[in-house]
Amino acid sequence: MTPAAASFMRLRGMIRKESLQILRDPSSIAIAFVMPLVLLLLFGYGVSLDAKHIPLAMVVEQPDSKTASLVGAFNRSDYFNPLSFDSIQDAQKALDLREVFGIVWLRNDFSQNLMSQDSAPIGVIVNGVDANKARITTGYIQGVWQAWFESYAASKGVKLSQPVALEPRIWFNAAVRSTDFLVPGLIAVIMTLIGAMLTSMVVAREWERGTMEALMVTPIRIGELVIGKLAPYFILGMGGMLMSVVMALWLFDVPLRGSFWLLSAASALFMLVSLGMGLLISVVARNQFVAGQLSLIVTFLPAFILSGFIFQISAMPEPIQVITHLIPARYYVAILQTLFLAGDIWPIVLANSAALLVMMVIFLGIAWRKTHKRLDA
Known about the structure:
The protein has two domains: 228 residues, no CATH class; 102 residues, 3-Layer(aba) Sandwich (abc type-2 transporter like fold), CATH 3.40.1710.10. 66% of the residues lie in helices and 6% in strands. It has 15 helices and four strands. A four-stranded mixed beta sheet has the order 2-1-3-4, sandwiched between helices. Helix 11 packs antiparallel against helix 14. The protein starts with a helix and ends in a 7-residue tail after the last helix. The model has no long low-confidence stretch (mean pLDDT 85).
């Protein structure tokens, strides 16, 4: 038998051994397929950054045709769920009890001050506990008010002096749905979970069960050992990625404007980075519990918090922004959101893929060098 044929047989045997281990371990299948399913359903349906149907108190002290027209504009908006109150005191009490999120107060002099430049015709009070939602709500109120006021002025033949006419156009996510933004980024978290967390236990499990000594006395080489252990998890991770993409497209209606094959290539590259991180943790830890905790702290949590998946990196403090460059998921999230929402924007895809390629070489190279066939390694 030639050396190449012998090497192929040893590699095939190692891959078969690890594949059977995965099939015998229900937790591996659960992490690869059940956990992504649960995460996608939770974030797709349960988590939303959209501000819609906001409960809004409408206080009208002197009802007339003008106030009725403005209240109707709020009723027609998808962003608000207006509730009528007789007095500002009742509305403030509802705001204190969190029955409403904001108050629009039309005072008894609303009609007289409507076209006046010296006084504010309406009062707005917003709950500022959630600062982001408060800013969004204030902007929506201003938008409804401005649109209604321009329409009212036009009906009276009054031309408003506006030096700039705004015509907003939203690119890449015209529907302004947070699901289209969250679901692609969640794929990076899922692949980190599959690649790093599962792989972090493969070598540690051998040490705990005492089977590493048996592997050491076999003719298998280090390269065959590493490839044989990583190959099944690579296939498992790509399967989880494919399932996530199918759910994103068919269940959540997230558009995929870029190439599926380019997405697959970038995903394979990121999967190798995650496998390298997990293998390095496993080689160093030699204990499944410690390896699992390390993979959670070193890979999963940074991918969740510092990748730009939910929190915008540019809004973070500068020292944290520097740290995010060490997080592989940051580059993969940028690729995912670009391919799903914008298309094949090559400068972004190539730049982030290059960063992933460098990280893949570093992590797999260190893990390779740290893997030895001796007990004192």
